[in-house]
Write a structure and sequence with these properties.
The complex is a heterodimer. Chain A is α+β, with helices and mostly antiparallel strands. Chain A folds into two domains: 193 residues, Penicillin-binding protein 2a (Domain 2) (Alpha-Beta Complex); 334 residues, Beta-lactamase (3-Layer(aba) Sandwich). Helix content of chain A is 37%, strand content 19%. In chain A, helix 13 crosses helix 15 and helix 13 runs antiparallel to helix 20. Chain A is elongated. Chain B is mainly alpha-helical. Chain B is built from 14 helices and three strands. Chain B is globular. The two termini of chain B are 25 Å apart. The chains are: A alpha+beta, B mainly alpha. At the A-B interface, helix 1 and helix 2 of A face helix 7, helix 10, helix 12 and helix 13 of B.
């Protein structure tokens, strides 16, 4: 092999080298062509796609939350307002070590376990780049302390925010409801309603009451800022700005002072009061006792308070005026009297002799009158005035349950009133058909007898009874009960709320008779003298007592022997002035015993204020004190 | 005494005006883009000017070296580099998770940069020495000369540099007439050893390769560079967003924008049209390199010039490829455009060699 080695041909070698070089050139050309194709692909074919990506990189849309509408009463008293306060907020996307950061913040600003729990919950639900409050309502001192150290906390900032506040606290709790942090369920609902964009920056939503029902008006329209941001998320400049539209202010039909007086008038009684202007359906007072402090719910209620409210035997979270269903007791009687006249079952002058009990034909069972030895001779007028049970036992039997059902339905019994509030219940107006459907049982004559005095199956809400009373006061024309008088920006517009929804045709004579009898209820000889004694105006009313537990045959009810929560409920319905009614109401004092004794005095205080401007003494003192302080 | 004209002639004697104009154009673009990439930092411009000045001085010195000098320093340079690489592996300083630097008392140096020149030089020297009796054995030995430093650099780990050195060495082998059969065998061998090579790679290197296939799977982590680079290039469109108007650049979305990703800055602001022009400048320089290579008179100079030219192309391709997302992010700067003294120096040394090859044989011929 060695012998074969010889010097290579120089020219041949150069030829081979240049061949290789040429191949390299081809390789280079091919690769550069690939690059060129890639440029073309990225910059020409897919330019639109990458331009969008670059834009979404740099442009961040920041929602500007609108101010929530303010709620005032009919006289301009503020019931729900916003006040500026400071929160300490964290943008989790910008914080590397959350635990350490929170621990460091904790040295400057107190962070309670409650705050931490809430923050953790918010973390799990957050949207990207959202800021979450770790502490709300910072004191000026805390703001100053953190501000001096804030350079140490990237991604943590103090924000001035508007907070919701309900100055009358428990007085208006069931009426206004409250706002609270938006939960997952509500987010889903907003998405379904295609409304999620309007809530991008919002953290609160109306949960109950007016705050819930008028959420759309109160919330307002969210504004948007288009901000150019750098890679660190810092805003470089604002590109465009659509200002938010503040939520609309609401003016309620409510009279806050009246509401306050009504709440006070209940004293320690549980119960409800709904007062309506019969001429237009405006709700003047809407009370459910006891109330609660709605301010507790805004940023999430803590466990202690929640358990206290939830486990209380007084069920303060229950909106009795809207959702409490009670037997209506003797308040049914004026309506029964009208039914008798309507069906010409009994004439006004027809009278019975009341032995103190009623017996169905062929039965020995005694349906007792509240007055053991009876009321003597009783005609229709007197039956209302003294609330004679015996008269109505017989009347109900004569009418039959179905005719009672049909007539009472005209006054809205058994139907929701359609008040502007979520969660209303419809009460119960029984009939033979209903009982068959509900219990698969025929209607017994005995059922009808007790139905005649509003016991048995009948159930009604205080709101329904107030509405029926207003309808009666307004000669059979019932205006849609409503809580909101005006929505800002829609003032003076005829509101669909102010519409007659009931129109019971009652002959004038019939109406006059029943109304006169109801006035007699509050006069000496009636069952509710306290409601009008010494008053310069006349009151038409009717007392009622709703049994909570049934009494056995021959057993006598003795309030002192029955536990507090099993005592009878006291009803009182009223309107005044009797000749030209300006206010109609239903008052329920739970376990209050007789309507004339407990419920009527409550109504009296409300009437005195509404008609005379008279403020009860304990409240007056408080008012004077407040006035002195403000001077 | 020489007058100005003579002085100029003497100065230009070993410089190639054609190549020089291409390099000048590129360096001018570099300064323009760098100004935008650094949000108008004159300090960086000044820094790059100093880099250019130093590198150009080195180029001038090398260009004026006679070719036999280059031949003479090939072996010592290679051995020095190899020893230093071993030194790095044993006592090197660790920075950013990689052992690349060697502290020699006065300064820290990166021996892998030296090897970019030393490896092809050594291989070209070796082939020149054995030109008369070249067999496959010589190719084998040359391959070992290549594999040793590449393996050491790969272990540092420095994927970008090892790829570039492997490429420069391979070009020497290829131009020296490595048989196609052997190349086929090498290719098969490379494929077969791929799993082992994969095992040798560090986690972050594997990540980079994986990201190439689907950068979006880790958009905020390892894939971030590629995605933001592609967004910058793509959003530039045909005419670009205009000088100093790149949003990806000026709002900090682009990482490494004055160094490895400077091409994304250029692309975003000057668009497809700008890319065509930039590519034309690179092709001009590479083309000139090919001409010099084709005209080189000795075996050594042909191999050396070819390797330098092709390596320069490889730099360009790998960088543009990684910025536009067709190659993994391997940390290769765009030659002569990226900010940085070391790569500038190495590249200009290469062009110095190229000019020396071109001008010295011209003198011989004339």
């Amino acid at each position: 092999m060695m012998s074969k080695i010889e010097l290579k041909d120089h020219q041949r070698e150069i030829y081979f080298f240049r061949l290789r070089l040429f191949l390299s050139l081809g390789f280079v050309g091919l690769m550069l062509f690939i690059l060129l194709l890639r440029f073309f692909y990225l910059q020409v074919i897919r330019h639109g796609h990458f331009e969008t990506m670059a834009e979404s990189n740099r442009i961040y849309v920041v929602p500007t939350v609108p101010n929530r509408g303010v709620i005032t009463d009919r006289n301009g008293v503020v019931l729900a307002r916003n006040y500026a306060g400071y929160t300490l907020e964290i943008t989790p996307d910008k914080v590397a070590d959350m635990q350490a950061t929170i621990a460091e913040i904790g040295k400057l600003v107190e962070i309670k376990p409650k705050d931490l729990r809430r923050f953790k919950k918010l973390m799990s639900e957050r949207r990207s780049l959202q800021t979450l409050p770790i502490r709300t309502r910072l004191s000026d001192d805390e703001v100053a302390r953190f501000a001096s150290q804030r350079y140490r906390f990237p991604g943590v900032e103090i924000k001035a925010r508007l907070f919701r506040e309900y100055p009358l606290t428990d007085v208006t709790s069931h009426l206004l409801g409250y706002i609270g942090r938006i939960n997952q369920q509500e987010i889903t609902q907003l998405e379904n309603d295609d409304n999620a964009n309007n809530y991008l920056g919002s953290e609160y939503i109306g949960k109950t009451g007016i705050e819930q029902f008028y959420e759309d008006d109160l919330h307002g329209v969210t504004g948007f800022e288009q901000v150019e941001v750098d890679a660190g998320g810092r805003a470089v400049r604002m590109l465009s700005h659509t200002p938010p539209q503040s939520g609309k202010n609401l003016t309620l039909t409510l009279d806050a002072k009246l509401q306050e007086i009504a709440v006070q008038a209940f004293g320690d009684y549980r119960g409800a009061l709904v007062a309506i202007d019969p001429s237009n359906g405006e709700v003047l007072a809407f009370v459910s006792k006891p109330g609660y402090d709605p301010n507790l719910f805004i940023d999430g209620i803590d466990t202690e308070n929640w358990e206290a409210l939830n486990n209380s035997p007084d069920v303060p979270l229950n909106n009795r005026a809207l959702r409490g269903q009670y037997p209506m007791g003797s308040t049914i009687k004026p309506f029964m009297a009208l039914a008798a006249l309507h069906y010409k079952s009994r004439s006004p002058s027809y009278s019975i002799s009341d032995p103190g009990y009623y017996k169905l034909a062929g039965s020995s069972h005694q349906y007792r009158d509240w007055k053991a030895d009876g009321h003597g001779r009783v005609d229709m007028f007197k039956s209302v005035q003294v609330s004679c049970d015996t008269y109505y036992y017989g009347l109900a039997t004569e009418l039959g349950i179905d005719r009672m059902h049909d007539f009472l339905e005209l006054f809205g019994f058994g139907k929701k009133t359609g008040l502007d509030m979520e969660g209303e219940v419809s009460g119960l107006l029984p009939s033979t058909a209903w009982k068959m459907k509900r219990y698969n049982q025929i209607w017994y004559p005995g059922d009808t007898v007790s139905a005649g005095i509003g016991q048995g199956y009948h159930l009604i809400t205080p709101l329904q009874l107030a509405f029926a009373t207003a309808t009666l006061a307004n000669d059979g024309v019932g205006f849609q009960p409503h809580l909101v008088k005006d929505v800002q920006g829609k003032e003076g517009e005829p509101r669909p709320a102010t519409q007659a929804i009931l129109n019971v045709k009652i002959p004038a004579d019939d109406l006059a008779l029943v109304k006169r009898a109801m006035v007699a209820v509050t006069q000496p000889g009636g069952t509710a003298v306290a409601a009008n004694y010494g008053a310069p105006y006349s009151v038409a009313g009717k007392t009622g007592t709703a049994q909570v537990i049934g009494m056995k045959q021959g057993e006598k009810y003795d309030a002192s022997k029955v536990s507090e929560y099993n005592r009878d409920h006291a009803w009182f319905i009223a309107y005044a002035p009797a000749d030209k009614p300006r206010i109609a109401m239903a008052v329920l004092a739970e376990n209050g015993g007789h309507g004339g004794g407990t419920a009527a005095p409550i109504a009296r205080k409300v009437l005195d204020y509404y008609l005379l401007g008279k403020v009860p003494t304990p409240l007056k003192k408080a008012d004077e004190k407040a006035a002195a302080q403000s001077d | 005494m020489m007058n100005i004209r003579q002085l100029k002639q003497r100065f230009m004697l070993h410089l190639d005006p054609v190549l020089l104009s291409g390099l000048g154009a590129l360096l001018l673009v570099s300064l323009i883009v760098l100004f935008s990439a650094t949000d108008g930092s004159w300090m960086r411009i000044l820094g790059q000017l100093v880099n250019i000045l130093v590198a150009f001085t080195a180029l001038w010195i090398v260009a004026n070296m006679p070719l036999h000098w280059l031949m003479r320093i090939a072996v010592p340079l290679y051995l020095l580099g190899l020893f230093m690489l071993i030194g790095v592996a044993l006592f090197g300083e660790i920075s950013h998770g990689a052992r690349r630097w060697l502290n020699i008392g006065v300064a820290s140096i990166q021996p892998s940069e030296l090897m970019k020149i030393a490896v092809p030089l050594m291989m070209a020297w070796y082939f020149e020495k054995n030109e008369a009796t070249l067999t496959w054995r010589n190719h084998f030995i040359a391959a070992i000369l290549l594999v040793l430093p590449v393996a050491l650099i790969l272990r540092q780990p420095d994927l970008g540099t090892s790829i570039l050195i492997a490429a420069s060495g391979f070009y020497v082998l290829f131009l020296a007439g490595l048989s196609w059969r052997l190349m086929g065998a090498l290719f098969v061998g490379a494929l077969a050893s791929a799993p082992f090579a994969w095992g040798m790679l560090h986690d972050y290197q594997r990540h980079r390769v994986m990201m190439l296939f689907d950068p979006s799977q880790d958009a905020l982590g390892k894939g971030y560079h590629t995605i933001q680079g592609m967004i910058a290039v793509g959003s530039g469109g045909f005419f670009g967003k205009g000088y100093m108007n790149g949003t990806q650049t000026h709002l900090d979305f682009l990482p490494e924008r004055s160094t490895d990703f400077i091409f994304a800055v250029f692309s975003e602001e000057f668009g497809f049209l700008g890319n065509l022009i930039l590519l034309a400048i690179y092709i001009f320089i590479i083309g000139r390199g090919f001409i010099i290579t084709a005209n080189a008179s000795t075996y050594f100079t042909r191999l050396m010039a070819g390797s330098i030219t092709l390596t320069f192309f490889t730099y360009t391709f790998v960088n543009m490829g990684m910025v536009t997302g067709i190659l993994p992010v391997v940390g290769v700067p765009l030659p002569l455009l990226s900010y940085g003294g070391t790569s500038m120096l190495t590249l200009m040394l290469g062009f110095g060699v190229l000019m020396s090859i071109h001008t010295h044989q011209r003198l011989v011929k004339t």
